[in-house]
Amino acid sequence: MSEPTMRQMEGETKRNDLDSLIKAIKSSNELWDDSTCLSQSQCVLNKTILSIVSKYLEADISGCASQFIVLGTKANKWCERHLNLILHSNGASQDENLSVMFSQKIPAIASEVLKLSQVISDAAVKLCRTYFQAIKLETCGIKNCKNNGSAEEELDIASHVIDMVVSTIKYLYDLGLFAASGGGSLVTLLNVSWKGVVSLLQLAKGYLSGKIDVADIILNLVSMAIESLRCAAEAWSLTLNEKIASADAKRTFLPIKFYLINAVRISSDYPHEALAVHRDLISCSLLILSLGISFSKDAKFRAASETLAEFLEPTSLLLLHTLLNTSNIKLESRLLILDALFCAENDPTSTSVEDVYSSARSDMLGSIFLVNCDNIFTAEAVKIGRLVLFLNLFKTSAVLKEEIVVAISGKLELLLDMLMHEEVYSLALGLEIPLFCGLAQGSGVTWQPMFSFILLSLKTFMIISASYSTAWMKVEAFLFENIFHPHFLCLEIITEMWCFLLSHAETSMSDFILDRVGSILKLVASSDPNLGPLSVLRKISRLVCILLSYVSPASIDRFYNKFFFSEDNSNLTKIVSVALLMEGFPLDLLVDDSKLIAIQKLVTSFYHFIESKTNEQALLRNESDVYDSSNLGLPVHALSSALQCSQVKDSDIADDENMPKIVNFAVLVIHEYRSTTNVNKYPLAKLLSAILFIISSMRNHYGSLELEKLIVELRNLVGCPTDVDDALHHCMGSISSFIASLSYMEIAEDESQTLCRSIWDLYHMLLRERHWAIAHLALVAFSYFAAHTSCAQLWRFVPREATLSFDTCTGTEASEDRFMSELKCVLEKSAALHEVVPAKELLVLVQEGTELRRVVAKLIVTNPQVSFSKQSVNHDKNKKRKLVDRISEGIGLLQNGLKVMNNALDQSDATDLKNTFSPHVSSLEDMLSHLTGLTNRIEYNSDNAWEKNDIT
């Protein structure tokens, strides 16, 4: 006999037994009457009947549901009468009897009561589900009575069933609140009660209007989640330096996730009730996200941060999705939620007492929970939470409906407003946060820089919004409107979004975007032709050059022909060309023919300009002309910029015939600078800087007499400290590069030689400069000169009062040894940068980096404004670090010696010696390799421990 047939026969047997039991109960005149308990035997009989009947609740009782209701009602009355009889049996008061009975019985039967509560709750849910389904399907015993009863009676029975469901929900709701107050000790009861509430609410959807306050149920679930989170955060904040274990975090967050999941389920079926408490739902999401960011800042909360990202953040985001994505709520109401959540910059008058207190205690976890629902959308304590919530909406926009995607696309501007907040953009740049990547194999929680998360979320939203024309129009408008954004971080994000768009766009779309950006570039150049480093023209040019690196060579050629060198050759086109070259226009990415033509045009324009101006012997038409760097010497600036970006090589522009022309033009610029008024000095200084850089790149052609004249003229211009005005400081970079390149000249070291004295004076001028940037340039220039020149009397190039000769404490005592020590460090670092194998010079960089970290740590520890969690550096740890550094230095010396031995063996012809030494050298190499790996691991662990303990 098959298994299904056997199950069918067993079910049939149970139904027959059940019918017999019901008939027996009906035929009894004494059972379940309205009198009190007759005897102990009757109580035993009643209890036995209930035990037997309870076993049939799991069977199909659709045919006798009404009889079960009658039986359950009478059993309830019997229990009540039985309890009253016991209470009045000893003559004491009812309260005294209750107290005595509970004190004696409850502790002994607590576990049994708990089990019975779970059984009753589960049975009640099953009973309600069976009856309610019978009402909806009109197939159960209640409907079978239709022929025997009136329609009013049938309706009355349905109403009673609904009332029964309502009563059961309220009972389970109270039981769930009681279980939640148990602190996690009543997990099973908590699970049964709240699942029963959710199940019955879903079952009776549409029938409970006005009978149950569903909004209050949702609110209590969210409140329990927030309260549990607050208690956990307060407890963990008191653990000092003790790390939170992952198991503890999971044990804490699991009940919170349970509350949130039930709130999401109820909200999805009762969206209007959820809308009534939308502030509390959003408040819960913001608090969770803000707390996650706070956890991410502290190493001891790392496990808690990861667990929160995995357990709570996805569920809290569903609370907002439930409100925004439902079609049962009017679009206007859903948009009002978005408007409230992502409002404009906070109104300063809306700051409450909680905000002030939380701002003052922003480093403490408890400050987040001081924010109430009334000011949750504007509170400073959850500002970073609002940003993360916004980004999560971008990231999950694939599951949002079109109207919500369109609405969010109109609020991209508010994202930039959030990022400009001081605390927010500092976290966006330097903080790593945990991101939950799903439950698939190989995924989980990963740590990423917050800036990467911002870009990933925006790029995801760009992909989704491209599916909807209205949303994409808003995204495109947002990108164009913020091309000139003043905040550096926002401008970087806009640039990344443009690059992402062009890297995936079709050629036609790329050309369309480049045309529009090029038109904006020309418009800016015509209205404000300032070529300063921070000018609007340079900003848009920088964006264009970055975008061109993401398109095809054909698109670059097209842009070059349209905007770079047009046929009209107007002054506007020259300004645009110079601006683009200053920002590194990718000439190398042009096709070969176009690249050659571009370089030829640059060189031709340059020589044509300097020849014409040299012949005229005037750069300015008259003294009253006011020129700026945008329209004076544009061909010179263009070629200089191309050389600085390595787009043009010196071999493309220089030869022995043209070198005198360039030098004579530089002399002309110096003469013009001396004779002009202050108003024209700045453009001439920038022009001098550009031509000096061009000459510096032509060092292979140093040898003309004109170059000596230029050096003398330059010395006369800047040799005296009183002659160096503000405008000439713009030339210091080019001057240092120029005099460094003089190492390729043959210099006669004689005081009677004007050239030699001029070079000495130029170096004296630079090395006396007190500005830190110029002092650095001067030292680098002199170190390069010293390493490549044939001059023997280098001490003549250094003045006694060189800036780096003075002690750093007083700044009054100069020492030649101190300057030579600084010069030695520069030379050693310069040599180390070109070393491929480990060398002694490379250890200089390692030691300098280690020392820099120590200095930074000391500054952080001694800073009085640093929070209490930042501890001082442990002395034992410093000793360990010094030991590791000395070992690393010794290993480096051994590696150098090993290199010498290998070279000697390679050059030797003695085969017997090679065979003798080679195995030992090989063993030594293996040992050094092992020591190097061991040292690196020790240093890595030491650094990690140092960073975790000293930098929060």
What labels would you give this structure?
single chain, mainly alpha, 69% helix, 952 residues, disordered C terminus
Give a written overview of the molecule.
- The protein has 952 residues and is an all-alpha fold.
- Among the domains are: 213-504, no CATH class; 511-755; 847-950.
- Helix content is 69%, strand content 1%.
- It has a two-stranded antiparallel ribbon with strand order 1-2.
- It is elongated.
Number of helical runs? Answer: 38
Overall shape: it is: elongated
| Widest sheet, order of strands | 1-2
Largest sheet: 2 strands, antiparallel
Report how far apart the termini are: 72 Å
Q: Which class do the helix and strand fractions yield?
A: mainly alpha
The amount of beta strand, in percent, is under 5%
The averaged pLDDT comes out at 77
Give the helix proportion (percent range). 55-70%
Got a strand count? 2
How big is the Rg? 42 Å
Q: Any low-confidence stretches, pLDDT <50, length ≥5?
A: 139-149, 346-363, 622-629, 863-877, 942-952
Pfam families: DUF4487
InterPro entries: DUF4487
